[in-house]
Amino acid sequence: MNNSGVDLYSVNDVTVILRLVLAVLLGGIIGFERGRSGRPAGLRTHILVCLGSALAMMTNQYIFETYGVSDPARIAAQVVSGIGFLGAGTILVTGRHQVKGLTTAAGLWATACMGLAIGIGFYKAAVVACILISFATMVLQRFDNYMLSKSKIIDIYLEYSSTSSFSSILEAMKKMNIQIEALEVVKPAYGANTSMAAIMTIKLKQKKMKMDVISNICSIEGVEFAEEI
Fold first, then answer.
1. Which end of the chain has fewer CB atoms within 10 angstroms, the N or the C?
2. Statement: the pTM of the whole predicted model exceeds 0.90
């Protein structure tokens, strides 16, 4: 109970409005960044996830306070496990075996947990979580991209002519000081007249610009297309 006489930790008219509005605001903060980045789950999705989680948690608390027969953690557990189906819908595996949407799925799960914290009146944790989730999705993304740009390990999708000897392409890459760590032959994703494609993980023995490496690979006889994935 605070000094104004309103109990912000039980379910009443004030806390119902406060928690739902807070869920919209904090969920919207997370969803705004995802929507601005062009992700499939953006502003509205994150708001609805956070709002629904808060409402579920408040309903659970209301049943417990009113009837004394509910487990306060039961609905929360169902929300945390059930949000997986929504997160799975944001994860895509492209034709080049590239996985996308993991950050958005994780963000939805974290947003649902944030909504549960709001719904039970754990306000401080919800606000701090919102700040940290925003930090992870915006600031750390730049750091992550920086680390990837400095990495000597890169994944390459490559299409080559069926008339060319793939062994000669690999030999040419070795002469460029490119070490092949893993190799998988896949179905071509782009070239309509190309019948051969491969995904390879390569390790550079020297520090080079990735664009220069890809450009050199494209210059190899028989290679029709190459890009980092």
1. N
2. no
